[in-house]
TrEMBL record:
Extent of the signal sequence: none
Keyword Iron-sulfur: yes
Protein name: Nitrite/Sulfite reductase ferredoxin-like domain-containing protein
Sequence ranges assigned to domain Nitrite/Sulfite reductase ferredoxin-like in this UniProt record: 23-64
Pfam families (alphabetical): NIR_SIR_ferr (PF03460)
This protein's UniProt keywords: 4Fe-4S, Iron, Iron-sulfur, Metal-binding
GO molecular function: 4 iron, 4 sulfur cluster binding; metal ion binding; oxidoreductase activity
The keyword 4Fe-4S appears for this protein: yes
Species this chain originates from: Methyloceanibacter stevinii
Amino acid sequence: METGDGLLARIVLSRPVLIDGFAALCAAARTHGNGLMEITARGSLQVRGLSDTSAPRFAAAVEALGIPFDDHVPVVGSPLPAHPRAGFNAQDLASEIRDGIAERPLKLAPKVSVVIDDGGPISLDGLAADVRLTLLNSSSSAPKVLVGLGGDGETATPLGVTRPEHAATVAVNLLAALAASSANARARDVIAREGLERFLRAAGDHLDTPPKRPAARTTETIGLHRLAGGACAIGVALPFGQAQALDLIALVRIAGANGADWVALAPQRTLLLGPIGEMTAFALGTAADTLGFIVDARDPRRRIAACAARRPAGRGISHHANSRRASPNVCRKALSRFTFPVAARAAPVQDRPP
């Protein structure tokens, strides 16, 4: 994708990435791009400043690293692995769906996607998708999965409920029905034009009548998250959704030195690091704050977007750099109607890498 500062590569990670792999990915972004990286509101990774020459080299570097990413239909599962409230493993289910898609030559619209919300501490209700799989009654010995079409947690049309072991088959069959409608079809448009009959036929006997739509869940990605076995993960957000590759490398290296194994991306422009102990999480939060990341969910920078395009002609000023320098004071004044403070700065804990 071409932008004001060159070509942009978007990567949808399919699983958490090992610390070393993510650090190497950031290094490749710095080598082949301009070093500016972004996490989108949907939790995708973007690498900016690539060129016609460097983009293929960056793609080859990512492939050589074995980074797990979606190269066709984005299948977005709950980002936290092994959390105690999950009724099924969203990442395993996502892998089943990807395998099912790969086995069938489906011609789908470019933005068709699948979302899998396993009921864990990070809700995916805010993400719209053509096919949504949402865990119901996770505390039950026989959990059910609500199948929805064409929207987010509040607007998707409920199609029915199925068992977790049938969810992948149902999802792939629904995508096949969507592809059969037309190459550019989106679920909400097909429903508006034809109703649900096409999708009900595709799901077959695996669906029961849907219950009343569950209440939407609002959760926070920033902060401490409990994992199975007493471990934790910490979520930190990128200011304005953007960070320099060197800052990201510094953060994940500090996390790795303190016991973290993996990095995952989450909605709300958030980076997750784990598994770590609770006290380590607080120390890592201090390190992230020192590096300029957002560790307080109330931080006003979450409500400001910065343009990442190249500098204006004839000027040596970067609006993006200015927004970073100005943020501690300008955000307070511009957003003074909000009653919350910016996260306090902390003393440096470790030098950034050269």
